[in-house]
Amino acid sequence: MDKSNIQKDAPVGAAGQGVVHESAAKHVSGEAVYIDDMMAPQGTLHAYVGLSTIAHGVVSSMSLAAVRNAPGVIDVITRDDVPGIIDIGPVFPGDPLMVGLGDTVEFHGQVLFAVAATSYAEARRAVRLAKVEYTSLPACLSIEDGLAAESFVRPAHYQRRGDAQSALPKAPHRVQGELQIGGQEQMYLEGQVSLCVPEEDGGMLVYSSTQNPTEGQKLVAEVLGVDLHQVTVDTRRMGGAFGGKETHANQWACLAAILARRTGRAVKLRLARGDDMRATGKRHHFLSRYDVGFDHEGQIQALDLMLAGGCGMSPDLSDAIVDRAMFHSDNAYYLPDVAIAGLRVKTHTVSNTAFRGFGGPQGMVAIEDVIDAIARDRGLDPLDVRKRNLYSAKGNRNTTHYGQLVEQEVLPLLIERLEKTSDYRARRESIRAFNAENPVLRRGLALTPVKFGISFTVQHLNQAGALIHVYTDGSIQLNHGGTEMGQGLYTKVAQVVAEELQVDIEHIRCTATRTDKIPNTSPTAASSGSDINGMAALAAARKIRKRLTVFACEHFGVSEESVQFSRNRITVDDRIFSFAEFANLAYHQRISLSATGFYRTPKIHYDRETASGRPFYYFANGAAVSEVLVDTLTGEYRVERVDICHDVGNSLNPAIDIGQIEGGFVQGMGWLTSEELAWDDNGRLTTVGPATYKIPAIGDTPPIFNVELLPDSPNAEATIFRSKAVGEPPLMLAISVWSAIRDAVASLADYRVHPSLDTPATPERVLLACEALRAESR
Ligand code: MTE
Ligand code: HPA
Ligand code: MOS
Can you state the angle between helices 654-673 and 360-378, rounded to 10 degrees? Predict the structure, then answer.
């Protein structure tokens, strides 16, 4: 840990220190309590769901008699048993809680009914006894089919600058291409789970593994037909979420709540892994098509880009996700004349949802493919083409295609730095020499940048609340609207309070996120958790500090300057109190030691009519250099070395930030290389567990993995202690791995042909790309 920037008398755990995650020890010892580990109330029932076995068709008969009569079964519910609203679509309707007799099934794995039984095993055995018949309808399973049928979940959105169509033919060089970008399963370690406990007066206490307790509260209230004040959602932690619990946790909470209401008993619903993979949404797969015009040096002059996201059967968050793909289809590059179309394709598959990056990664992969294609066309090192196209205030090339100024220019220097620290140019030379001598094994190298917009693009979500209680022994309870999913949010927000109140972090306890403590919260998403909840907690802590200061002035008859907060102490002139003594004194003088805080992100707006504005408060930046070794006769490859420089502004916690960068990178690498989702011709997902769906294992960590936080780069905006969000951006650094693989393949045709390589770049696809290039250069 780098201690150089920590003040000498700072409290242990104040902002900027690399303190360990508040649950790290509990995570590794197994003591951290997840919902399935909780001491459930006496008589708790176990729920399970019956899922559809076709992708598209009408339910023509549904016999549940055998299910009802199965051992241990206490209750069975169908669509007809929902007391309130059936549709749980988070933004737009389209997600029925269950589909029943006469309804249309829209994907293989859709919930038809739910049971509650006295044990988990009995519930799971019972659901298999259902007899369901369907009248099948033709299913649309691919983006191409959806495009051909003009089947969309939402209208298209367009972003434009200048006139791409007339600029394209004028460009000295022009290339067209197409790319398939695969989806991704979130693979959180803890599957979706909810425990609902009925309370008096129609109340319901819901323990839910959710990134969005407030939305869970709203939907449980709606399906039950009660007011929001009757429902409380409690989320202490998730065993990973990665976007997969932003909206797709709600259904299980709603079903358990209905069963709990009907039986008067607590009900727990936990999905088994296979059903979790079948029934919950994934990262959107995309199809991109481009037409790009550029000059002799590879500088882009015009771009026409189509991004078609495979949304699955309902809108869910797809409007915002495809928007974010469009917002990031420039990545770090200035696009002079540009037209971007974002299409939301409907298919008869599970509704796709949030996944780290939220569409951004897909947009970036699309443009990085374009950049590599330009480099091959011009016979240039792709790094030089990237540098030539970077946003820059020079020549007024620093406004995005949606009108936001790139104010803080970080990437040119960051890339310069990484190019040196990674020894890029010398390695490029030696790799060329190696490849010239080796017909089969080929090395590839790529440096790719990331510029990621921070803020929810839906403006009203950019708000947060916090609640702080100081007790008479000086200990502090902290609560805020953000949820903990492993990313270290509780630790970072506690550090903010430690800093402001000048107390060691051990005196601060962050309690479970609850809708009765902080109301009307936003999902913990868009990487903005610490930005907005940290600011809300700071506001609450400031109120208490102010109150204590004013009290000290009045009580001791001094001026504000005489009151000092230092590590675990408050001094009033020459009187020295421990923080605890002073809190106790204030209590006895009837000073309130509890405060709420609120924050909303300033400056942001986006007008979808004109497709322009400032959707992001700021950008987080980074770059990675990856080197791979490819066996061009088998398509197998290894990632041999990765160097990363990432911009987190003034880090709130360098240890956690580096963990997020390493983890995000490896997760991105999995997405782009080994994680392949497959469906059969009937729309049934066939990759329903880790045996067939290959996430990176610890052995896939690059053997040389150098991660640096960009030094001396405070956020230009007044964020929490000038830090920058870190949750999602590093995932996209892994695009360098995919680009490096194509670099190795391109060596087979003397770097003159752009290898088309859809993602994930599995060994099979890499082999096909190698064979295509060998054929081309023959
Ligand atoms: N890190 C861990 N360990 N587990 C997670 O589920 N989710 C990611 C990222 N890092 C995730 C994670 C996603 S998708 C987001 S949006 C952010 O964390 C959310 O948290 P933050 O806003 O507090 O960074
Ligand atoms: N990111 C993540 N989640 C979201 C967003 C976003 O931009 N908008 C709505 N939900
Ligand atoms: Mo993260 S995809 O915004 O939950």
Answer: 70
In order of 434, 504, 545, 546, the CA distances from 592 in angstroms are 71, 21, 11, 11
Q: How far is it, in rounded angstroms, from Cα 645 to Cα 251? A: 40
- Options 728, 764, 771, 776, the catalytic residue: 728
Contact 49, 542 (CB under 8 A): no
- State the DSSP H helix or E strand holding residue 214, giving kind and residue range, or none if neither: helix 213-224
Q: In this structure, what DSSP letter does residue 318 have?
A: H
| Predicted confidence (pLDDT) per residue in 718-758, tens digit | 999 999 999 999 999 999 999 999 999 999 999 999 999 99
Q: How far is the CA of 273 from the centre of ligand 1 (A)?
A: 21
Who contacts 46 (Cβ-Cβ below 8 Å, separation ≥6)? 116, 117, 118, 119, 120, 122, 123, 267, 268, 269, 270
Is residue 462 in contact with ligand 1, taking CB distance under 6 Å? Answer: no
The ligand 1 atom at the shortest distance from the C-alpha of residue 528 is 22
Report field, pTM of the whole predicted structure over 0.70: yes
Atom from ligand 3 closest to the CA of residue 727 = 1
- Is the CB of residue 678 less than 8 Å from the CB of residue 686? yes
Closest residue by Cα to residue 529 from 501, 546, 510: 510
Q: Which atom of ligand 1 is nearest to the CA of 526?
A: 16
Q: For a substitution probing ligand 2, which of 186, 215, 245, 317 has the most ligand atoms within 8 Å of its CB? A: 317
Ligand with minimal distance to 458 CA: 2
| Tokens 């619990």, residue located | 245
